[in-house]
C-alpha cells in the first residue's frame, strides 16, 4: 500500500514538472514567434549594410589605384558603382535590435516584471523576519517579556511604519499604472487581446525562473542598454578615407575636363 502511494506521489510530482515545462516552452515559443521576425530583420539589414560598406571601401581603394595609374576610365567605372552602392546604402537603416521600438518595449516590460518579482521577494523576506521576531517575543514567558528592551519594540514599530509607507507608495503606483492601462486600452483596442496574451506568456515564462537567474537577466539587460549607446550608428567612412575619396573625385574632374 505504501509503495503504491509513493508511486502515485512520484507520478504526481513528475506530471507537475512536465506541465511546468510545457507551459514554459509554450510561452517561450510564443515570444520567439512574436519577435524573431523583427530580430531577423534587424540582423539582415545590419549585415547588408556592413557588406555594402565593406564593398565600398574596396572599390574606393581600387578607384584610388586607378587614378594613381592614370586609368581614369576604370576609375570612372568604380565611381559609378560607388554611386549605386551609396543609393543602396541610403535605403538601409542600421538599427540595433535593442533599439527597435517593439523589442525595446518588450525589454522594458521584462525589466518591470523582474523588478516587481525581486521587490516582492525582498518584502516577503522582511515580512517573514518581522513576523518571526513578533512571534518570538509573544512566546516569551511574562517575566521575560517585560524585560525586552523598549528599543526593540521601537525598532519593530518603525519597521512596521516603513512597510506601511511602502505599501502606500505601491498602491499609488498601482493606481497610476491602472490609469495608464485604461488609456492604452482605448488607444490600441484592436491589439488588446494580443497584448494580454503576450503579457500572460511572459509572466508564465518568468514564473519558472529563479531569483538568481532573474538577477542575471536583469544585469544582462542593463549591459545591453549601456552597450547599445556605445555603438556608432552611422558606420560612416573614417576621415582619412573621406579625404582620399575627395582627392580622387577632384582628379577625376580634372581628367574629364582634359578629355573635353
How are the SSEs placed, and which strands pair?
Blueprint: H1 2-68, H2 72-91, H3 101-138, H4 142-145, H5 150-187, H6 192-207, H7 211-228, H8 239-259
Helix pairs in contact: 1-2, 1-6, 1-8, 3-5, 3-7
Number of DSSP helices?
8
Q: Given the helix and strand composition, which structural class is it?
A: mainly alpha
Apparent shape: elongated
Largest sheet: none
Helix percentage = over 70%
The poorly predicted ranges are 1-20
Average pLDDT for all residues: 71
Order of helices and strands: HHHHHHHH
Keywords: Coiled coil
Domain UVR: 53-88
Pfam family, one: UVR
Protein name: Disrupted in schizophrenia 1 protein
What's this model, at a glance?
This protein is mostly helical.
Description:
InterPro entries: DISC1, UVR_dom. It holds the Pfam family UVR. The protein is 85% helix and 0% strand. It contains eight helices and no strands. It has helices at 2-68, 72-91, 101-138, 142-145, 150-187, 192-207, 211-228, 239-259. The chain is elongated. 5% of the residues are buried. Mean pLDDT is 71; it is low at 1-20.
Keywords:
260 residues; mainly alpha; 8 helices; disordered N terminus
